[in-house]
Amino acid sequence: MPSKAPPRVSGKVFRSRIPTLLVSMFASFASIYVAGRLWQDSENRVYLIKELDRITGKGGSVISVDDTLKIIACREQHKKLSAVEMELAAAKQEGFSLKRSTLGNGTRPLVVIGIFTKFGRKNNRDAIRKAWMGTGSALKNMENQKGVIARFVIGRSANRGDSLDIAIDNENRQIKDFLILDTHLEAPEEFSKKAKLFFAHVADKWDAEFYAKVNDDVYVNIDVLGATLATHLDKPRVYIGCMKSGEVFSELSHKWYEPEWWKFGDKKSYFRHASAEMYVISQALAKFVSINKDILRTYAHDDVSVGSWFIGLDVKHLNDAKFCCSSWTGGAICAGV
């Protein structure tokens, strides 16, 4: 008898086993990947909690990962500021000097004052020149004898090169006491960005101990300012002014409306910050602004914005009543007019 041929496996059945095998392999790899990611996330969470416990000394505290990340971010900002100071110190020891201006006599300026002005306020500028800033040789003498550099700070018109820009250029050509921020648009809603650009610019241009912002309707007692700042030369990271906090206004029609009012908590109160009429920061803080200007947040008002940049940093906040410019009293630094 002829032998019986073995049964043939149909091609259809054989082909059906291949997709099944691929699906099984894919499922296995997917399981391994997901398990690995879950393990990694778990390890990251444990690390972050341990870091928080180490920082605060409160082991076993219950806190979210988001809050932990915020605290670590603050520490990173502090590290960055400290690193900048260490690099500057090391560079000076090696004889490296930044290409920043000193005074005519080769000494280091005590303070650079930026007087924030606007288009159409020449009368305010002339009053300041007459009252305390001076022009020509008087302005130079204030720089060389007292170490105080003062400049009017302004940006450019939205219609670049129009009559507003031409008027400022002509005034500066005659008196030479402007700091013109060519990249800044001079507009009310851009005032906080103006403060950021100002501090970044002057920190790179002048090697001063301090940098100050003043409004163009404020008179400054230069002698008292110089004497006061001289007492704080031993403080590398200092922020000086008439410190305040107050209500955050969420009403669109209000003069001091803050579009991001919701960021300031349920009670809607600002954190402590120096009043906008006049405030001073030390060189280390100005360099911090210069290095981080692209990521520093600005709010509706320049004083709030500047105050926000130093939250989480090791900065000495000095509340000095002599910087409260609402009225002129004996021994005051400034007066609003």
Describe this structure in words.
- It is a single chain.
- The chain has helices at about 10-55, 65-95, 120-135, 135-145, 165-175, 190-205, 220-230, 285-290, 300-310; strands at about 110-115, 150-155, 180-185, 210-215, 220, 240-245, 275-280, 315-320, 335.
- It is α/β, with parallel strands linked by helices and about 325 residues long.
- Residues about 10-15 and about 95-100 have low confidence and may be disordered.
Oligomer: single chain
Rg measurement, Å: 30 Å
Beta-strand fraction estimate: 15-25%
Mean pLDDT: 80
What profile does the largest beta sheet have?
A: 7 strands, mixed
| Termini Cα gap | 125 Å
Morphology call: globular
Spans of at least 5 consecutive residues with low confidence: 9-15, 95-99
* Count of distinct strands: 9
Proportion in helices: 40-55%
Key words describing this protein structure:
single chain, alpha/beta, 9 helices, 337 residues, 17% strand, two-stranded antiparallel sheet, seven-stranded mixed β-sheet
List the helices and strands and how they pair.
Blueprint: H1 11-56, H2 65-93, E1 111-116, H3 122-133, H4 136-146, E2 148-156, H5 163-175, E3 178-185, H6 191-205, E4 210-215, E5 218-220, H7 222-230, E6 238-244, E7 273-282, H8 283-292, H9 302-309, E8 316-319, E9 334-336
Parallel strand pairs: 1-2, 1-4, 2-3, 6-8
Antiparallel strand pairs: 4-7, 5-9, 6-7
